Known about the structure:
Elements: H1 2-5, H2 7-14, E1 19-25, H3 28-31, H4 39-54, E2 58-63, H5 76-89, H6 102-106, H7 113-126, E3 131-137, H8 150-167, H9 170-173, E4 178-185, H10 190-193, E5 201-203, H11 208-212, H12 216-234
Helix pairs in contact: 4-12, 5-7
Amino acid sequence: MHLLQHPRFEHWLVSEDSNLLVVDDMERERTWNPDQPSAVTYLAAKIVRTVAALGMGLPLVFFCGLHNTEGDPLEGGAGMMKSINSQFLEQFRGYDASFVEPELLDRIHESDSRIQWRLFQTLMENIRPMVVFCIIDSLSEFDDGRHEFDIPGLVGAFQQMVESLNGAASGSRSGRPILKVLVTMPELSASSAMWFADEPLSVPEATPDMIEGIGDDYLTGSVQDIHGAHEAIRYGG
């Protein structure tokens, strides 16, 4: 799997910095099947399972291709953030959540991307220091006229949060969470490429069937190898 071997992905996975990585599937056009998810979608699902199994951090995931029908309650930027926030809120179950403003609590079920982003910000500010993996798959599914404002705005907000977390003074960063955002774009257009500050990572992934057939043990071992190599360099091993 080309993605796992790329230095930019390795840095995204194991560095101590917050990061936003955009992945474009170079083979999507050649292997496209309207009835089958892309190879990077299968890979995103496997990465989520691996992160959870290894206890590397908190995985939050949203598959845009499952909610791209007009009228879907989780369609678009507001629906995406509502789903991510519901997963995030599970981490606070049983704990005092009085840090959430009452006004915001009253509106968390609204399909308003600004309200949902405020809630995500609040949760990030109050979660204990840990790595939060936010994996947004097939964001290109929302590259249409219905979402021409909320999606670019949310991408920009994620990028600003990453920069803010990385820009904190070294003394205060130790008490902050690390945010790692992975966005897959199986069909990257000229307009959607402008959403992102950094050049997307284009990888020639295998066919969806090949990715689906890769065992979780193989992927877990690959991620452990990346993490082990990083620790050896970090500590001079």
